[in-house]
Amino acid sequence: MKIYFVTGEPSGDLLASSLMKVLKERNSGVEFYGVGGETMKPYGLNSLFSMAELTVMGFFEVFPRLPLILKRIKQTVADIERVNPDILITVDSWGFVSALLSRLKKKNINVPKLHYVAPQVWAWKKGRAKNVAKLADRLMTLLPYEPEYFEKYGLKCDFVGHPVVENRIEEIDAGDFRIRYGIPADASVLSVLPGSRSSEIKRLIPVFREAIRMISTKVENLFVVIPTVETVAGEIGKAFKNSDIPCRIVTGRNERYAAFKQSIAAIAASGTVSLELASCKTPHLIAYKFNPLTNFLADILVNVKYANLINILSDREIIPEFTLYKCRANLIADKALELMDSNAAKLMIRDMDEGLQKLRLPNMLPSEKAAEIVMEMIGKR
Questions:
Q1: CB within 8 A of 376, min separation 6: which ones?
Q2: Residue 61 — very low, low, confident or very high, per pLDDT cuts 50/70/90?
Q3: What pLDDT is stored for residue 58 in this prediction?
Q4: Exposed end of the chain (fewer CB within 10 Å): N or C?
Q5: Range list of H helices, the chain
Q6: Is residue 199 domain-shared with residue 329, that is, in the same domain?
Q7: Residue 247 CA, distance from chain mean position
Q8: H or E element: which one contains 192?
Q9: Is residue 193 domain-shared with residue 298, that is, in the same domain?
């Protein structure tokens, strides 16, 4: 059995690895091919090229990378043709994936195409739902309200649940985390997560650094921990090298969650990490901005009240959001200080738990449901 994966984001890498684990347990002879990241590698994927080349977000941010992206699309199509897999599973990264699937369709390469993670058509560009239906054979969604946007165009959709609910975070022991990283017992640990893409890191780190400085004037013994991925750890390390506030960079899934468990609060780039923080019961806020032109367009085109999934599912702001023009150091610092208060933290933890419950199926883990769908599609072929 040959399964071809394509993903271009660290969050997609984590999602695909959970699915690969279950598929491997159910069929030890399965072979994995394609494009992925460091979390997929232990399950046997040797990525065709570095996933980091595709990790870019924003209207104008994509343009400088366009020649390389087009080259990688051509390379991936040729590799799919060579491997002739039993199924192609594309994960998130719809910009790259849609171009890839269009090329496959044009070249008449007939392979079952399953897309994992629905494009957020409910937020902007609802017309993308019709395009997804034309290019994919089936869609697996993370959110319960998403299938209806695609089923009206005849695409078979399945809500499988969000992978954050199966992270087994409770099993991770964070007891000696401070000792391993030389963090004093009386330090107030703040997790700071400026993103996993080089472009967003460049934009967010100056804002986050200034917010940290402001917080340090009000909080004694502040210690900053920066959980990140290997692909950008060096870049982040350079940005914080001369910081007056003690900080440590940590990588790896278990270290990431141990850091969250030891943190009094967190400041994070908008994304899946917010759900991970919620699962660790870590009070946090999210922040995000693009370059000025993209900010302007996003402000006009995006038509949702909230950016955070827990806020969207709850229809109220549980996780404070500082996006686009609100992504300012003083606002972030003020809210972070507020979250460090124990009463505010208790309320947020209660509300986050309620939001997370809406991201799961009653009797099956997301990766198990996803694996069931993969095997069903292969069986039909």
A1: none
A2: low
A3: 47
A4: C
A5: 10-26, 66-83, 94-106, 128-135, 147-151, 177-180, 198-216, 230-239, 253-262, 273-279, 292-301, 309-314, 329-339, 342-356, 366-380
A6: yes
A7: 24
A8: strand 188-193
A9: yes
CA distances from 256 to 229, 273, 296, 352 (A): 9, 10, 33, 19
How many separate domains does the chain show? 2
CB atoms within 10 A of CB 75: 13
Geometric angle at alpha carbon 78, from 74 and 83, rounded to 5°: 145
- Find, among 357, 280, 289, 274, the residue nearest to 320 by Cα: 274
CATH of the domain at 200: 3.40.50.2000
Containing structural domain, residue 100: 2-161+361-380
Residue 322 structure tokens: 């500082």
- pLDDT above 70: residue 9: yes
Structure confidence at residue 109 as a pLDDT band (50, 70, 90): very high
- 82 and 186 fall within a common domain: no
- Same domain assignment for residues 209 and 323: yes
- Rounded CA-CA distance 110/289 in Å is 40
Residue with tokens 């909080």, as numbered in its chain: 219
